[in-house]
């Protein structure tokens, strides 16, 4: 019985630890889903792809969270397996073993419900948020929410081709803002990085640009070459963005009218 209760407590504590780690990772800028996956992978030792490993290792706060999570995970999994074995080995009678099995099954069912419950998730998230803000120096920003990375909005990186439409043009000439696209930064050789470049900044071959905007607009931008069709694509994108803004303004006006009435 003691071993069964211990197993339930260990699994519950493991779920709580991964929840805390996932929220902490979210505060470093990862989306909620990615943060959950990273936390669970680190705790169980499932591992990451090369790109995900670099994403973690290049960020000091994320690296520290994942490192501690791996250490705790190794101890937690071993302890859980030991408790599971002892649950069915220590009891001398069949009744005791069945009683231990009942505790494990009931406890796991309750824990599964708690993990899946949106009400529990919201309440627990609020508590963890407050504790992280009060007792840690993690910068509390969910950049996925701040940048509205949903409704087809995304952040993307791409290398500028020598025959690409953006190559050897300034941001003023490209006029990407009218398409609803923003250049967040540009990586250039020799460890040069230009954050939030201004209109006179010129895009050069092999620059790695970080772009924010609608997914279809970014895809169109990457496919443009230095030809007549590139200008047509640009003009088409500008018109679509103007139409989208007008529709958004009309929706806001309609909502304000409804509220005033």
Automatic annotation (TrEMBL):
Transmembrane spans: 6-30, 65-90, 96-115
Molecular function GO terms recorded: monoatomic cation transmembrane transporter activity
Name used for this protein in its record: Potassium transporter TrkA
Keyword set includes Transmembrane: yes
Pfam families per the UniProt record, alphabetical: TrkA_C
Disordered: annotated span: 232-261
Domain RCK C-terminal, chain residue ranges per copy: 142-227
Superkingdom, taxonomy of origin: Bacteria
GO BP of this protein: potassium ion transport
Sorted UniProt keywords: Membrane, Transmembrane, Transmembrane helix
Record-linked PROSITE patterns: RCK_C
InterPro entries reported in the protein's UniProt record: RCK_C (IPR006037), RCK_C_sf (IPR036721)
């Amino acid at each position: 019985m003691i071993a069964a209760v211990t197993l339930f407590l260990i699994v519950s504590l493991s779920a709580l630890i991964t929840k805390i780690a996932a929220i902490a990772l979210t505060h470093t800028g990862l989306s909620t889903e990615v943060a959950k996956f990273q936390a669970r992978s680190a705790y169980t030792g499932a591992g990451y792809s090369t790109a995900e490993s670099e994403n973690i290792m290049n960020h000091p706060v994320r690296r520290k969270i994942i490192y501690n999570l791996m250490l705790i995970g190794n101890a937690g999994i071993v302890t859980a397996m030991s408790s599971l074995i002892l649950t069915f080995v220590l009891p001398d009678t069949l009744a005791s073993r069945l009683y231990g099995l009942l505790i494990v099954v009931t406890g796991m069912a309750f824990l599964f419900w708690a993990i899946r419950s949106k009400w529990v998730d919201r309440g627990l998230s609020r508590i963890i948020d407050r504790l992280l803000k009060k007792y840690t120096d993690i910068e509390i920003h969910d950049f996925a929410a701040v940048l509205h990375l949903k409704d087809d909005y995304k952040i993307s990186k791409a290398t500028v081709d020598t025959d690409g439409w953006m190559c050897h043009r300034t941001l003023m000439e490209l006029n990407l803002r009218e398409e609803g696209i923003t250049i967040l930064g540009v990586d250039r050789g020799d460890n040069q990085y230009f954050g939030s470049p201004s209109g006179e900044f010129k895009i050069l071959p092999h620059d790695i640009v970080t772009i924010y905007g609608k997914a279809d607009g970014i895809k169109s931008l990457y496919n443009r070459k230095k030809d007549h069709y590139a200008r047509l694509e640009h003009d088409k994108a500008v018109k679509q963005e103007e139409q989208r803004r007008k529709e958004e303004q009309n929706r806001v006006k309609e909502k304000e009218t409804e509220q005033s009435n």
